[in-house]
Amino acid sequence: AGAETVKRAVQLDVASRFQESLVCYQEGIDLLLQVVKATTDEAKKHRYRQKISEYMTRAEDIKKHIEKEKQDGKYHKQIRIEENATGFGYEKLFHEYLTEIVSEVWVEDPYIRQVHQASRYLLYNFLRFCEMLIKGPCKVKTIHLLTSYDEGSGRSQQMTALEEIKQSLSNYGVTLNIDFSSSIHDREIRFNNGWMIKIGRGLDYFKKPQGRFSIGYCDFDLRPCHETTVDVFHIKHTKKM
Asked: Which SMART domains does this chain map to (predicted)?
């Protein structure tokens, strides 16, 4: 398993997918260290240690490269979510960027509104995103939401739902600031530690569940996704709305 993991790390490294490569190097190194502990053959131990040393050196080089890209504001990682793919719940997608220093979050999404629509549950999606922030490890104190008004009779329902989310967040010491724009079209999420995530479909990349008692209704990791692209950037200073 360790050999396969570092093999994958090398492939990702060659493809310049450095963040993913670093994760595989780290996992592979841990697995190989376990092999060394269980090996009694000193010659094999020596060979494993040499390889581990090489992988550790490369992992450190990648860390430095990523850090430099962050400092220069040039970091970019792209994730492609395939049609019907699973395993892309909010925690899985965002957890590595929600460090303990994150205290402020900006969400721009024009469609945080419909509760009942043929294929969309966007207010519920936003609520689940907020729940993820509450669980940490970040210490979020303020969430800024920029969206658009719902049309017609749906506006009242939208406002009621957002006010309920706002009140509920306040019980956890989190302030929700809500603004509306009739011209907003971009979808992006920003954290005050410099990370910015752009998702082609915004928070609405999950398919409608088969039913209220079907697998994936509650656990987004098990919910099939629509095809979309996620772009992750690191910038020196997160802009204000």
From this structure: MIT
